[in-house]
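Let's inspect one such protein example.
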Amino acid sequence: VNSVTAASTDGTTATITVQFNGTALGLTGTPEIEFTGTANNAGGVEWDCTGGGLANKYRPANCRAAAAAGG
């Protein structure tokens, strides 16, 4: 992992971006995955992990399925 950043866009949505060392994975560049959390009506957070350019085979299993389905 090269870096981890977090940003809140408003009071209900935030994004965590994890940037990887592509060389360590045998890739070029610095691929990343974005986790976007959105507050739901039940007081919890719903996470979307389809953002970023990290290849599906390196994503957690639930993120691979969501990314393959288009989000």
Helices lie at 61-68. The first helix runs from residue 61 to 68.
